[in-house]
Structure formats: C-alpha cells, structure tokens
Amino acid sequence: MKKSFLILILLLGGLWSTAQPLELGLMGGASFYSGDLSPKEFGLYFGELNPAFGIFMRKNFNNTFSMRVGASLAKVEGDDANIGFENRGINFRTQIFEVALTGEVNLFRLGSPKGTQVVPYLYAGVGIYHFNPETLFDDNWIELHPLGTEGQGLPGYDDPYSLTQLCIPAGGGLKFIFKEVWTLGLEFGGRKLFTDYLDDVSAKEVNYIDILTGNGTLAAQLSNPSIKNPEEDEIIYTRGGKFDDWYFMGGVTLSFKFGDGSGGRGGRQLGCPGF
Asked: Is residue 275 one of the residues assigned to a domain?
C-alpha cells in the first residue's frame, strides 16, 4: 500500500515538474486523535501527542492561490483509562500514512518582498490515508482489524472496514517568508474522516455472545475486556459514543523555492507549510 502512495507522489511530481517555480519543504510536529476514546469531541491529553513528519511540494499560481501535494506519517492513540472507563480496558494506537492534494488561499500579506513577509492562510483538499489499529493486551500489541471486535463480517453486522480511505484535510497557518525564497511556517489542521473505525470503536450496538461464537474468544475479549465470565445468552452494549473520529496534525515547516521563476505572470516565489 505504501508503494502505491509513493507512486502517486511521483506522478503528481512529474505533472508539476514543468511548471516553475516550485516549493519543496519538510514538516515536523505532532499529531493526536479525537473520537470515541477521547474525553470530549475535541479532547486532548498531552500524553497522547505523538510525532508527525511530512514532505511537500507546491505550485504558486498567483498571489492568492496555490496547490500542493504532500505525504505525511503520524501516529495517534486513545485509552479508556483517560476518559474514566479504567475498568473496561479498551485502548488503541495506529500509524497513519497520508497523501493529500490541497489548495491554499493566502488571506493577506504584511511586509516587503525584498525582506520578510507575514502571510496567514487557509487550506483544504482531499487525501488518501492508510491506518491499522492495534490494542495492547497482555503486554502484546494485537491488530484489531482481522478480529471483528464489533461483529464485522457476521450476519446482521457491518462488513469489515477498509484500512485505506479518503479524508478531507482542512486547516490554516502562518508563514514567514524571507526574500521570497525561504519560508518558515506554523500550521495546524484536522482530517474529516468517513469512518468511525479509526480506533476500531463505533457507536453500533453489539452482542458479546455473537462475537464470541462468531469471531472467537480473542475478538470477544478485546471487544469488551471488562466481561470475564459471560453467563447470559445476550450481553448487549455499545462500545463508542456520539463523537466522530478525527485526527489532527500541526507543526513547523521549512520550505525553499527552486526553479527559474518563469511559471507565469504574477506567480509569487514563496514556500508554504503543507502535509
């Protein structure tokens, strides 16, 4: 799967290679998750912050609008212990690999092109990301997707969710442009997802006995670790809540212009945070 992402990056890079000037940059920062295992819709525990890294390339079309393509690697996690459900014991982590194509709108500029400029901006676009949630159980990390902890694949339950999906990245930032060549930026954005299974937890109602008999003992244990000795024919519960899954990334970026600047009248030569 990662090979296909890299191929996409190379193809988009080839399409842009004839349109100069371009910007090439790096991002370093942090990522976190919001969803069923976070304390509220935009809950944040600093202990759940994880490193995030990215590389990007962008094309400036005029003083207002630019397009960029970027790839990023991040990690997110969540734990019942942080939201008051210590006795239940559900937790997860996942690596995220994302490729995104976004458009950027510069709101205004302060400063001189011959010196330093300050430019606030907004961005939005479309991305493809790959994830694979795991849980810590008996001191071992176990992949959750193959197990079907919410009955995925059983009659009357959802099909297994896809580990590669679309997302909508959106956010904003602030750039400090030095002589139209180097750009130091600060950026933060979220990803609107079309799945509630980033954490392998949803708001769907499940029956413990169905999972036990259909998907096995381990799937049932990880579905609800608080259930030790089931003695009833039906043990029905909902693992998640009303909050949709999101992941967020923010960080510091550094980019530089390369090319001869002949990409069209009015094209500015500056870099942009992106991932």
From this structure: no
**pLDDT score at 102:** 94
Q: How far is CA 54 from the centre of its chain?
A: 12
Cα 171 to Cα 190: distance, rounded to the nearest angstrom: 6
**How far apart are the C-alpha atoms of 110 and 62, rounded to whole Å?**
16
pLDDT at residue 7, rounded to an integer: 54
Domain limits for position 100: 2-202+244-258
**Going by C-beta distance under 8 Å and a sequence separation of 6 or more, which residues neighbour residue 79?**
37, 48, 90, 91, 92
Q: What is the pLDDT of residue 63?
A: 81
> Is position 268 within any domain?
no
**Beta strands, E only, the chain:** 22-34, 50-60, 65-79, 91-106, 110-111, 116-131, 134-137, 140-143, 164-178, 182-193, 205-207, 236-238, 246-258
The DSSP element (H or E) to which 14 belongs, if any, is helix 2-16
pLDDT of residue 274: 40
Look up the CATH number of the domain holding residue 172.
2.40.160.20
Q: Which amino acid would we find at residue 27? A: M
Residue 214 lies in a domain: no
Among 48, 10, 85, 114, smallest CA distance to 248 is for 48
Residue 5: both structure tokens together: 């992402």
Query: Where are the alpha helices (H) located in 116-171, listed in sequence order?
Result: none
Residue whose C-alpha is closest to residue 34's, from 240, 181, 253, 205: 240
pLDDT, tens digit (0-9, with 9 covering 90-100), for 176-199: 999 888 999 999 999 999 999 999
230 located within any domain: no
Identify the pLDDT of residue 269.
41
CA distance 51 to 29: 6
